[in-house]
Design brief:
The chain has 19 helices and 4 strands. The protein is mainly alpha-helical. It comes from Parvimonas micra.
């Protein structure tokens, strides 16, 4: 068996072993297993069946991660993306007032379009054309947005009277338990404990049970919930509408830049980028993302994307697709442990969201703030995401301001033709929304 793994995944060529890859796969799963709790929680607020979303989340993660391992031979794991599920629920469904079936249809179309764009190498071209500073800013902006959601759900911040936001009730049980969860999780991270986020959520849940805020699970192992309430539930009645175009447009770009940032960031940490700073087999990696998104939409979940938590497995020595295969199998195994995941309260996931936000904002250190034509677009990208409650808005402001600043400062040649096209498309998006 080890000979098969060696030949298929080229372990010696990547200076790794079966044992190292297995441990890395377990580590990656433990650091991102929180998505099995957080994704159903977020999508249920859009009106989707929480149990069904749990099952779909596990299956979609399995599919996307297996394809990444087999097709691209990278140690990256995929799952319904944080930020993208927030955009699905809080912007399209709650913010715009559309049904979750409408949003799910946009995700399906996104996956199909990404398959076409990946096959024609358009996505690779966009990946290579994006300014490095904006790639880092997108990740940081999503991190702040996610952290804000966690703070709001925990009651640590609230809508103010006469002001947009105010401090919440810090002494409430949910707030105190969330604060405990944050501090305990960070302590585990400082101690380099694999799976710190998941263990932090479990510890927070245990404390809430001890305090009488939550109840013990009635069982440890159970039958996975049926996905029938959300399986293939599409609404094609508005497929040619302006509303669908705008929702699809936003999903496409949010997913594209989220995936790009993660792939480049994690690959850089693992020294997988070539001498030109590009990612070999990027096309295959993007195919895994596109197939995962398409399959996930059919099953009934928001966009599937590459997870930045893959960096945890890379840090443990994972270098090939065998790491991804191990992670994928653990997602499948998690299906029978749904009763345990189901009792984890919202404020336990809130602490996880805040910590994940911390992880995602670290890319801000790589932005050149001494060059204001780089700094201002990056700043606008980051700040507009939480303040406008939209990831897409942050990307729009970043790309448009980047293009305009470079032009007016006489440095237009630094802007790729692809970025000029993106800026024009975003401006057209603003115009279209103005006449909706």
């Amino acid at each position: 068996m080890s000979t098969f793994f060696e030949n298929f995944f080229k372990l010696k060529e990547h200076k790794t072993t079966v044992r190292t890859e297995v441990l890395a796969g377990i580590t990656t799963f433990m650091t991102m297993a929180y998505i099995l709790v957080v994704n159903p929680t977020i999508l249920s607020e859009a009106g989707m069946d929480k149990g069904a979303v749990f099952t779909t989340t596990a299956i979609a993660s399995f599919i996307g991660t297996v394809i990444m391992g087999l097709l691209a031979n990278y140690p990256f794991a995929l799952a319904p993306g944080m930020g993208l599920n927030a955009y699905f629920t809080y912007t399209i469904v709650i913010g715009k007032g559309y049904s979750w079936q409408f949003a799910l249809t946009a995700v399906l179309l996104e996956g199909i379009i990404f398959l076409i764009l990946t096959f024609t190498k358009v996505r690779e071209m966009i990946v290579n054309a994006m300014p490095y500073s904006l790639k880092q800013a997108v990740s940081a902006g999503i991190g702040i947005f996610i952290a804000f959601l966690g703070l709001y759900q925990a009651g640590l911040v609230k809508q103010g009277k006469g002001i947009p936001l105010d401090l919440g009730t810090i002494t409430s049980a949910t707030s105190l338990i969330t604060i405990f969860g944050i501090l305990f999780t960070i302590l585990l991270i400082v101690k380099k404990v694999p799976g710190a986020i998941l263990f932090g959520m479990l510890a927070t849940t245990a404390v809430s049970i001890i305090c009488g805020v939550s109840e013990l699970p009635k069982a440890i192992i159970g039958k996975p919930s049926s996905i029938a309430p959300i399986f293939m539930k599409f609404d094609f009645s508005k497929i040619l509408s302006t509303e669908m175009f705008i929702a699809l447009f936003a999903f496409l770009f949010v997913d594209l830049f989220d995936t790009v940032g993660t792939l480049v960031g994690v690959a850089s940490k693992a020294d997988m980028l070539d001498k030109d700073g590009n990612l070999p087999r990027a096309r295959q990696a993007l195919f895994a993302d596109a197939i995962g998104t398409t399959a996930g939409a059919m099953l009934g979940t928001s966009t599937v994307t590459t997870f930045v938590e893959s960096a945890a497995g890379v840090a443990e020595g994972g270098r090939t697709g065998l790491t991804s295969i191990v992670t994928a199998l653990l997602f499948l195994l998690a299906l029978i442990f749904q009763p345990i995941f189901a009792v984890i309260p919202t404020y336990a996931t809130s602490s996880a969201l805040i910590v994940v936000g911390l992880f995602m904002i670290t890319g801000i250190k790589k932005i050149d703030f001494d060059d204001y034509t780089e700094a201002l677009p990056a700043f606008l990208t980051i700040i507009m995401m939480p303040l406008s409650y939209s990831i897409a808005n942050g990307i729009v402001f970043g790309i448009v301001s980047y293009t305009v600043l470079k032009l007016v400062s006489g440095r237009g040649k630094e802007v790729s033709p692809v970025v000029y096209i993106l800026a024009l498309l975003f401006i057209l998006k603003f115009v279209a929304e103005a006449f909706m």
